[in-house]
Amino acid sequence: MQSVCPMKNRQEMIGTLGRCGTSSDTEKPMIGIYDFSYGPYALGDALTWTMNLNIMAATAGCDAIDQYLVINPARPGSRYQPFVNQHNYVNIIDNLFPAFLCSPMLRSLRLFFHPPAFSLLFLRGVVRRQPMWPSWFGHLNRRLDFISHRRINAYHRKHGRLPWLIAPRGYGTWADLFRKTHCDGRFVVAVNIRQGALSLTPANLYRDSPLPEWHAFMRRTAARCPDALFLVLGGYTEWDREFFRLPNVLIPRAMGFGLGHELALLHRADLFMGSSSGFAAMATFCNKPYLITNVQHLFSRYIGVPVGARHYPFGNENQILNWERENQDVLLEQFEELHDRVRGKLA
Prior knowledge:
By secondary structure, this protein is of the alpha/beta class.
């Protein structure tokens, strides 16, 4: 059995996994399987999968989750992501790994590079009738509905609550210290502006946000709301250097931090603003006040929300969906609306 985690900072991640929980005879675990041969390397999909896994565990009465991530080095990606190959998959999973550390019920996580070894463990779970998601039938047929919100919406309708995501294990305390050191007294806004054209693997460029509009919005906000501080999140190549000239912006990646730190900062922020993409999924599923922009209309059928609706079924007045391409006036108007309400609650 091979369960190696190829991270840049191995000691940090070893410590992180060590804090995921301890085994107990009283715990009833759910097995969560994410096989990259049919599951994508994508932040939003990984976080939505985790949220669905939380729902499945809660529904089954489980109080712990054991996650199994499976990669076949000979064929590391699915046919939908042909850019993933034998030469770059380690770096890709390295960068994505913290997204799988956000479940509050996470007890253990194993990363397999030898599918036959995983198959033995999978078979043992089937024989023991352990709860798992996807089911043994779904996994064998390579079916995993991690995109839709149908389970999430149904659980919320029944219980009036959700098992929200948390900051990645091992990063929460660091995020608190970062806020105290760099943001003390400021209204912290985590921002992700989708710029696929600037990424190393450009795709779906029609979903990109208009960067000049965001620049103008932040310049206007500096004068109108001087207490606001924007943390620009995203890959190192995906933010424009114009942000360095803005007095109310910090860029964690430019300070040497990675995805785990960014997700923790988003979890600790006062507000999230940004494109309908991976970081928006984190804001959605950790119950953060947010403005999510440029929501795809075709996404409506997966999330159970009519096009133009202002909120998710489990959302509140401080969690706004915007279905149109954003501009500086819309951003400023909705930011000031959220700023006044959220700031008032924090006071």
